[in-house]
Amino acid sequence: MVTQIISTMETQVSNGPTSNSSLPNGPLISANGATDDSKTNLIVNYLPQNMTQEEFKSLFGSIGEIESCKLVRDKITGQSLGYGFVNYVDSNDADKAINTLNGLKLQTKTIKVSYARPSSASIRDANLYVSGLPKTMSQKEMEQLFSQYGRIITSRILVDQVTGVSRGVGFIRFDKRIEAEEAIKGLNGQKPLGASEPITVKFANNPSQKTGQALLTHLYQTTARRYTGPLHHQTQRFRLDNLLNMAYGVKSPLSLISRFSPITIDSMTSLAGVNLTGASSAGWCIFVYNLSPEADESVLWQLFGPFGAVTNVKVIRDFTTNKCKGFGFVTMTNYDEAAMAIASLNGYRLGDRILQVSFKTSEEFVKTKHGAI
DNA sequence: TTAAATT
Question: Is the CB of A153 under 7 A from strand B?
Answer without folding.
Answer: yes
